[in-house]
Specification:
The chain is α+β, with helices and mostly antiparallel strands. Helix content is about 25%, strand content about 35%. The protein binds zinc ion.
Length: about 170
């Protein structure tokens, strides 16, 4: 596998590969807001969504890759929990998974966005771990499902309370 990454000009793999099911929804997982910076739908490269976020430490590019399709538009603001696409196996991939990577960048005077340390052997991608703490919600899907189930329980409770009140009224 290392030879494959080296054939792409990389020192080694430049991000995380997370196991995913076919068409599994992918949610934006940064704790704050981001802006969709670039959408790619290319027969060779695959389908990917690049999002920029700005925080106290700089401007960062988050990439989500190998999608079947995306559901966001360029320039769109996204926040934690927003659906961005559906996982697949497009591009340089041998099985359905989500590729995620992180890079720091900066805007040039002419408005173009450039990665810092592009020649670091990973095309500018950096180890997310030092940056990661408290900035990412790793289980957005779980949180969304949990919130839905809490809401569902509340609705059921309200319904049964209304039922009790109506029954009382009839007596
Ligand atoms: Zn990968």
């Amino acid at each position: 596998m290392l030879a494959f990454y080296q054939s792409l000009g990389l020192t080694a793999h430049n991000g995380f590969d997370l196991v995913a099911k076919d068409l599994e929804p992918c949610y934006f997982n940064y704790y704050g807001k981001g802006k969709v910076y670039r959408l790619t739908d290319d027969p060779l490269l695959g389908v990917g969504v690049d999002v920029l976020v700005q925080d106290t430490e700089g401007i960062f590019q988050l990439r989500f890759w190998h999608f079947k399709s995306y559901v966001v538009k360029a320039g769109q603001e996204v926040e934690s929990g927003d659906l961005i696409g559906y996982c697949d196996n497009t591009g340089q991939s041998t099985g359905t998974h989500l590729h995620f990577d992180l890079a720091e960048g900066t805007f040039q005077n002419n408005g173009t966005f450039d990665l810092i340390n592009r020649d670091n052997g990973f095309f500018g991608k950096i180890d997310p771990y030092p940056y990661w703490d408290n900035r990412f919600v790793l289980d957005v899907k779980y949180n969304v499902e949990e919130q839905v189930s809490i809401l569902q329980k509340m609705i059921n409770t309200i319904k049964s309370l209304i039922g009790l009140l109506l029954n009382k009224g009839q007596k």
